[in-house]
Design a protein that fits this description.
Layout: H1 11-19, E1 22-23, E2 29-32, E3 38-46, E4 49-56, E5 71-75, H2 83-92, E6 111-116, E7 125-126, H3 136-153, H4 155-158, E8 163-168, H5 171-188, E9 195-201, H6 207-220, H7 226-244, H8 248-265, H9 300-315, H10 324-328, H11 331-336, H12 350-355, H13 365-373, E10 377-382, H14 392-399, E11 421-425, H15 430-439, H16 461-468, H17 480-486
Parallel strand pairs: 5-6, 5-8, 8-9, 9-10
Antiparallel strand pairs: 1-2, 2-3, 3-4, 4-6, 4-7, 10-11
Helix pairs in contact: 3-5, 5-13, 6-7, 7-8
Protein name: Carboxypeptidase
GO biological process, one term: proteolysis
Family: Belongs to the peptidase S10 family.
Length: 487
């Protein structure tokens, strides 16, 4: 644990925070800041199954009837990775892992909700492992129950703030199923919320398509030779056959073997940035000894993502001193007050990952199609090199009530790492439009499915912050506990 792991919080913020603790008839608990700028809590989505959420109200919030201020619900991948930890403190939240302001926080353009999804991830917990979800749809049902509670808990959602579900990696499967579950509940009158759009970033919505794309892409950029490429294609074909036969657990095992094969034949190409050699790759090293996350062979690839984010920050000169596990089990846990004392936060939950073994390789393209049929805008962004389309923040700003209503085809900022190109799906595209986007990871496809030229490599982490979002409001040497408790 880092040196800020057990700070003594100021007495006044403590009393104010505790004064906001309240329980609902559904055995849920909410706490937060007295001014409502931050709220957090647990919702008991099923008996003995508790989802943790954390809401941030944007200080830049300006809402009018014609341009209502949006809310983003961030869904982390894995499966089993913590959105409250990784998504919040390492990607788009207001503070980084050193508890310093993030210049590129999405809070500049939207209110943010982070959730440790599904139950068993991060601060979320179950009182019996038999309550862990085994399918994406079970996770969607729980998350819909959470949103029904939040629709009553958060005044901004009650007032019609358009909600965008934004996901990365396996979180794309969560977003597709949750988005559809929410859309159905809204249509049935069971949920009063404005679902404005779904954004799928490097999403795992079609495992077959991604698996089949590995070898051609790596051959194209000379990370595999012809012999290795042919062998990789055969292994990918096996995965496809197993998915078609419904042998989903077997297909996941074959997929993992394919990744190991590619690693051995490509000088350990980084699955998050194929432009990097092994010697340059912060992911290639073992996890730091200070990490609080236990790893197994089944989840090693997933763990590389958060390690990559941390490595990118160090390369960019952020002088990282805290660890994510250190702050989540220390100063953050102290701030929140409602986390069970004996509960330890981890970046990735192996039990959650393993519980989804029979659903891991199941596609969610049909769910995307149904979302489109309801008129819900779906934005897909994927790939390594970026030409065009705004950052996630600008996507929110350009339409607010209609995320991704159009694609800007001029040069724009690159998306935060992992960098992706983007395209807005239309109903007429259906499966074929989505499949082409997934199979063209290095290019942006517009709604007419025309590939555009690839752009320059994206900047990563703090380098992206410094280059595109210069902000002078740095806190210097202020105490992290004061920063965390002042919000």
């Amino acid at each position: 644990m880092d040196k800020h792991g057990r700070p003594l919080l100021a007495l006044l913020p403590l009393l104010l925070c505790l004064s906001l603790l309240r329980a609902s008839p559904a055995a849920s608990v909410t706490a937060g800041n007295p001014d409502g700028t931050e709220l957090w809590g647990f919702v008991e989505v099923r008996p003995k199954a508790h989802l943790f959420w954390w809401y941030y109200k944007s200080p830049q919030r300006v809402s009018t009837p014609s341009r209502p201020w949006p809310t983003v619900l961030w869904l982390q991948g894995g499966p089993g990775a913590s959105g409250v930890g990784i998504g919040n403190f390492m990607e788009v939240g207001p503070l980084d892992v050193n508890l310093k302001p993030r210049n590129s926080t999405w809070l500049q353009k939207a209110d943010l909700i982070f959730v440790d999804n599904p139950v068993g991830v991060g601060y979320s917990y179950v009182e019996d492992d038999s309550l862990l979800v085994t399918t994406d749809w079970q996770a969607a049902t729980d998350a819909t129950t959470l949103l029904k509670a939040l629709a009553k808990e958060l005044p901004t959602l009650q007032q019609g703030s358009p909600l965008f579900l934004v996901a990365e990696s396996y979180g794309g499967k969560y977003a597709a199923t949750l988005g559809l579950s929410v859309a159905r509940a809204v249509r049935a009158g069971d949920l009063k919320i404005k679902l404005a759009g779904v954004a799928l970033g490097d999403s795992w919505v079609s495992p077959e398509d991604f698996t089949l794309a590995y070898a051609p892409l790596l051959l194209e950029v000379s990370r595999l030779d012809d012999n290795a490429g042919d062998a990789a294609k055969k292994k990918a074909a096996t995965v496809k056959e197993q998915i078609a036969a419904g042998r989903l657990a077997d297909s996941q095992g074959s997929w993992s073997e394919l990744l190991d094969f590619i690693d051995s034949k490509s000088a350990s190409v980084d699955m998050y940035n194929f432009l990097l050699d092994a010697g340059m790759d912060p992911v290639a090293a073992d996890l730091p000894a200070t990490s609080s996350t236990p790893t197994t062979s089944s989840s090693a690839q997933v763990m590389k993502y958060s390690t990559y984010l941390g490595g990118s920050q160090e390369e960019a000169g952020s002088n990282t001193t805290n660890t994510l596990g250190g702050i989540m089990n220390g100063v953050v846990k102290e701030k929140l007050k409602i986390i069970p004392k004996d509960h330890e936060w981890h970046e990735l939950s192996d039990p959650v990952y393993n519980a989804l073994v029979n659903d891991f390789m199941k596609p969610r393209i049909d769910e995307v199609d149904e979302l489109l049929s309801y008129g819900v805008d779906v934005t897909v962004y994927n790939g390594q090199l970026v030409k065009s389309l705004d950052t996630g923040c600008d996507l929110l700003d350009q339409g607010r009530g209609s995320m991704g209503a159009k694609a800007q085809m001029g040069w724009a900022e690159e998306l935060p790492e992992p960098a992706e190109a983007a395209s807005v799906l239309r109903i007429i595209q259906g499966h074929q439009g989505l499949r082409q986007i997934l199979q063209e990871p290095a290019f942006l496809l517009d709604p007419r499915r025309r590939p555009l030229r690839a752009g320059r490599p994206a900047l990563h982490g703090t380098e992206h912050d410094r280059w595109h979002n210069p902000v002078s409001s740095q806190l210097g040497e202020e105490d992290p506990e004061q920063i965390l408790s002042a919000g």
